[in-house]
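Q: I have 456 residues here and want to know how they pack in 3D. Can you give me a structure?
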Amino acid sequence: MRRSTYDPVSAGCLIVACCAVPLMAQQPPVPTAPVTGNRQPTTALTLADLERMALANNPTLPEAQADVRASQGRKQQSGLYPNPTIGYEGREINSNSFYRGGAHGLFVEQPIVTGNKLGLSKQVFATEAEQAQSEAAAQRQRVLNSVRIAYYRALGAQERVQLTSDLADLARHAATTSAELANVGQADQPDVLEARVEAGRARLDLLAAQSTEESVWQELAATIGNPGLAMTKLAGRLDDPHPTIDQEKALADILSHSPEVQTAAQGVTRAEEALKRARAERLPNVELRGGVDYSRELLGPMNIPMGWEGEAEVGVVIPLFNRNQGNIGTAESELAHARQELERVRLGLRANFAAAFHEYAESAEVVQAYRDQILPDAEEAYRMYLAKYQEMAAAYPQVLIAQRTWFELREEYTTALVSEWESAVAIQGYLLTDGLAAPLAPGEPATLWPGVEVKP
């Protein structure tokens, strides 16, 4: 009776049963079933181990945190009050010893900022600091997603190496035994050639699988920030229970909580604050200046020095020609840009989600079909050909074909599992990938919003 699900344990029992079948001297070796599942030595690395390594070593995370600290510094600087100016002044200084003219003194000058410009500037950069924090959170999610995707790819590559290695061992043993039987006249030459072809093909498949595993491992090691990490067995199984993703709920969660959406929304707020700040620039600041002088000019018949004098000045810049209209217009355009950017981000996420969910749904269907029908059918076909061959009712090439078909289907099943995990990780991680991409740094000097000045 056909089994409804593919069971690796039953496949292992089949291996033992096939290996225990007594072979007659005139028969070439009977191929056994492939070993399934991932080996998990005690020293194997888990996904949690790799995530900890990445959070500790990936260079983009300190970059993002540095951007957060830089934005907080700009926020602090933008709200500081202008420093006063203190100095010496001399007036009517001359060399006439009779009149002894000239005055010497000190002055203090202080600009008075009006229109809450400092508060508005600080609010602009406070929103920028929030953007930097959102980007840091997004970068952390990118790193974790990239590590998880690379982990499942490496796990799949590890599985393929195990499968192709088992097939190569079986094919090599079959070729050797067939040649020995042919030497004593107990095997046909076509069977010998078929076995040799299968052995050569299996060896090339193994080399290709090992090369792929090495490449995937290097990608994983680079993502966690440790390119010198030696290749190690990974713990876990690709056929562990997969997350079930509801399409509408997943999309709503991404559009509501994605760090990219939060950053874009904060960009709109920042642009609104920058526009307020640019408009406030039209109100001129007040310049206050005061000081005391000691005048040496002689007065009256007694020639008494005039002595101490005070001075005070109050001035404002009249916004007659420059009313900051250029910066205001630019800030209005930047606000319109920020609003459209928010909409663009949402639409982009919808488009990316559609592609990711399609891949997830398609992979899930393939996995279920392989697990519930295709693999059990392939295993049953192999067992039937094996039984017929042992009864001398089937040719040896038919057994080889059934064996290779089963192995190839196992590889295709592994590929579908990896694809399902990759798309599930991307969807659950807000579609953030590429953990080695440079994090966005909002508020860099070249991108300061109009009307906002941060003095060093």
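Q: Anything worth noting?
A: The chain has one domain: 8-447. The first strand starts at residue 85 and ends at 91.
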